[in-house]
Amino acid sequence: MAKEMKSEEVKASFLKNMLLLQYLITVLEGDFLPRNCTYQETMNWTILRESQLNLLLGSRKIIYKGLMKDCLSIMCDMSQLSVFSEEDGSTGELLHGITSVTTLALPEMKKSTCNLLKKLLLMIMELDSSRRVADQQGHTTRADGVRTPAMEIILDELMYNNDILPSFLQVFDPRWKLEIIVQYFQKYIPKYSVQTRRSSGAVKTENFDGVLKCLSNSNITKSIVKKISSEVVQLLLAYAFQAYLALFYQHVSGGVSVTVEHVKSNSLHEICKNLVSAFTSLRKEDPDTEMLCCSKEALFTAAAILSAKM
């Protein structure tokens, strides 16, 4: 009897906290999105400065970096793991005491919570992006304080813990996913200028095509593989290409202009050619590595696009 009561208490507490989290993020979203749209039109930073999200992140009552890390960790866990697993003895006992209605509701609640945590991270990154513009225009003041951009925290976590990398790449938004992968590679690409055969200038790594050109250089590939595994490089390249294609076709079909950043300067044909070259260079430097399924799919897609252009 005592065990059943304990199970009910844990169940009720878990569901209550999950619903409360969903409610809070929904409220923050309802306040932030209209303000951010207005800011894009007026460039009035005060509108975003007074947003509930900005006030919350600037509050001393929360540990900002801890919040970001927890959101990222929970989002990645919920994207692939069941909330309650019958293989886990402790949770198995809990599951035994849960009503069938609650059991059926848990997967959907897990999915919605994962999506809302992703929305929260995206809103914070959008806020950081808008603040960066406001900084450049001289609209911010000392009263705005200093806060580490969300992307830097996410990058640090992904570089420190490669185990969450696949889950993150599967669920995150294409635009920001591509941006994060590009910056991930920038952390490992040597700082010295990279010379190409066709040009005496340095290869720029601010966009995906620049990263691919760098990875086509055997010396750079060798340097990167020494720091991170070839499997991680494959994973990043495959998901970056997937995100690029999503943005490219969104742009072609008349999508919003913010998606143009990585697709406007290079043709799809050039990206596909450089992707194949990057994988070829990786294969030469680490011939014993096994090609991941996502890498094979990316190469097959790139080859199909190239053959269609011929």
Automatic annotation (TrEMBL):
It comes from the Eukaryota. GO terms for biological process: DNA damage response; negative regulation of defense response; negative regulation of DNA-templated transcription. InterPro entries: SNI1. One of its GO terms (cellular component) is Smc5-Smc6 complex. This is Uncharacterized protein. It comes from Erythranthe guttata (Yellow monkey flower). The lineage of its organism: Eukaryota, Viridiplantae, Streptophyta, Embryophyta, Tracheophyta.
